[in-house]
Design goal:
Strand content: 5-15%
Radius of gyration: 18 Å
Largest sheet: 7 strands, mixed
CATH architecture: 3-Layer(aba) Sandwich
Oligomer: single chain
């Protein structure tokens, strides 16, 4: 998908302006039903929902802008919430569809579904793990961005379902937080838990939809091996947003020296054979 860096930046700015308005419409009380941690997003929703995630999202966009090639039939984003990269990729010219289990968010998802519709992005309201996938497109690329860490069990059945929709040109892009990221390591050294705040976990309705199992890059590579996926690319993401705090910038320096402590990890795989 040929696009200049200048044109891409203009598209990103346009979508970010949309999201500044969008996140203010999200009902945090409703959203927090299955994850009370969302109450912490009330005071700075744009920073929490958008700015803190831009490094990861920009990595995805750059892959599709400059490295993916022209044989991509379309892209299906599984588990879309704040739709920054779906909207950008759609404006770049990709065919874009998304999946979301709307019942997890209730009315809090309504502004997002309305925005997706305004952008011409088709949304599938299904539970991909437990429901039929007959309505989903085949031969697309599939994105699992910050999804696997929320599962309450093995990703095996989910990956197998996705593979059944892939063809020889399809790619599966998986991104998860790194369980060994520096803040987690520091918490453990101090004798504190690296898991979500216990009060958020305790008071959330069942099932808890926060982070249940973050992963290392080695574990993501194992997932690909067990699932018979050939790794096309893998790597680590460090939060480098200029608006981060002084402590965060110090973390960035340490993570660049010791990349095993990066904030998140990703793999891009394809079916073998």
């Amino acid at each position: 998908m040929a696009i200049s860096k200048k044109d891409l930046e203009l598209i990103k700015k346009e979508v970010l302006l949309d999201l500044k308005t969008l996140v203010e419409k999200i009902d945090i009380d409703e959203l927090a039903t299955f994850n009370k941690g969302y109450y912490r997003y009330r005071n700075e929703p744009y920073k929490k929902f958008v700015q803190n995630e831009l490094d990861t999202w920009n990595r995805i966009i750059d892959f599709y802008a400059f490295r993916r090639g022209n044989d991509c039939t379309g892209i299906l984003d599984i588990g879309t919430f704040i739709p920054f990269y779906p909207a950008v990729l759609k404006k770049m010219g990709y065919q874009l569809e998304v999946i979301e289990k709307v019942s997890l968010y209730g009315e809090a998802y309504k502004p997002i579904s309305e925005y997706l519709n305004s952008q011409g992005i088709r949304m599938h309201d299904i539970d991909i793990i437990n429901e039929s996938i007959d309505s989903l497109p085949r031969g697309f690329d599939f994105l699992l961005i910050a999804i696997l860490e929320h599962l309450n069990g093995s990703p095996k059945s989910l990956i197998e379902k996705i593979k059944s929709l892939m063809d020889t040109n399809s790619l599966l892009y998986i991104h998860v937080p790194n369980i060994c990221k520096l803040p987690n390591v520091i918490s453990m050294v101090r004798g504190k838990s690296s898991l979500p705040y216990y009060q958020d976990y305790y008071f959330s309705d069942y099932p808890f939809e926060g982070h249940n199992r973050e992963m290392t890059l080695e574990e993501l590579s194992m997932l690909c091996e067990f699932s018979s996926l050939e790794i096309v690319e893998k790597g680590r993401v460090i939060k480098a947003n200029a608006s981060q705090s002084r402590v965060r910038r110090i973390y960035n320096v340490i993570e660049k020296i010791a990349p095993n402590y990066s904030d998140s990890v990703y793999v891009i795989g394809k079916k073998k054979g």
